[in-house]
Amino acid sequence: MITTIQNKQIKQIMKLKKNARERRKQQLFLVEGIRMFTEIPEQYLYKVYASEDFYKEHQAVFEGMEVELVSDQVMKEISDTMTPQGVLALVRMLEYSLEDLLQQENPLLLVLENLQDPGNLGTILRTGEGAGINGIIMSRETVDIYNPKVTRSTMGSIFRVPFVYVDDLFEVIKMMKDRNITTYAAHLNGTDYTRESYISGTAFLIGNEGNGLTDELTDNAQKKIKIPMCGRVESLNAAMASGLLVYEARRQRQGVD
């Protein structure tokens, strides 16, 4: 059993927890908690750590696995939550390509520009899976999807929703137009989002929480849409807005009136 945070493996985990660059360097990220742990595809599971009590209580979950036991104090140090459940895994990064996302027939996609809130990104993945999106495309300045707070808030959707980071969203929009995927910029000066059709290839562009989409990206989109609001509210949370848009697309694609 590992009982000290001076252990080499534990030091590695601490680096992975705190540093996106370290995660990219090692091509590993952290997953913790029993629910998320059971969602990990077998081919991506790299190493498992568990507290002694948790291991004894859930031995069936670890059948056929090599598990490194750690003390409760060490588990508390490597965990990203206030009350660790007792299991943490190192997971290999998932691999998708932009081509994987764009080559699908009539895809429903989200394009995220410079989102910064981990909870927002995690919720967008989870909501997107529920609505049946085909993938998420993100600018390099968007928060790291492998941030522990993001992965935790996806509730497992990170393993099922394809995603890519790209250097140039303008180039991506151009590629989408060439493939008959209509790009819609969420914008205050757009038309009511319920008046557009999302039956064919669709990509919703969602901007930064504080500033929205940049003018440059908005101008490159084919259409501008808005979510009408009452009162003095000017804009919605990025995750809420994307959720409304993708579920409207799902409603239309299922033929629901």
List the helices and strands and how they pair.
Layout: H1 8-18, H2 20-26, E1 28-32, H3 34-39, E2 45-51, H4 52-57, E3 67-70, H5 72-78, E4 87-92, H6 98-102, E5 108-112, H7 118-131, E6 135-139, H8 148-154, E7 163-166, H9 169-178, E8 182-192, E9 202-206, H10 215-220, E10 223-226, H11 238-253
Parallel strand pairs: 2-3, 5-6, 5-9, 6-7, 8-9, 8-10
Antiparallel strand pairs: 1-4, 2-4
Helix pairs in contact: 1-2, 7-8, 7-11
Write up this protein:
With 257 residues, the chain is α/β, with parallel strands linked by helices. It contains 11 helices and 10 strands. The chain has a 6-stranded parallel β-sheet with strand order 7-6-5-9-8-10. The protein is elongated and about 60 Å long. The termini are far apart. The model has no long low-confidence stretch (mean pLDDT 94).
Give a short synopsis of this structure.
With 257 residues, this protein is α/β, with parallel strands linked by helices. It is 37% helix and 22% strand.
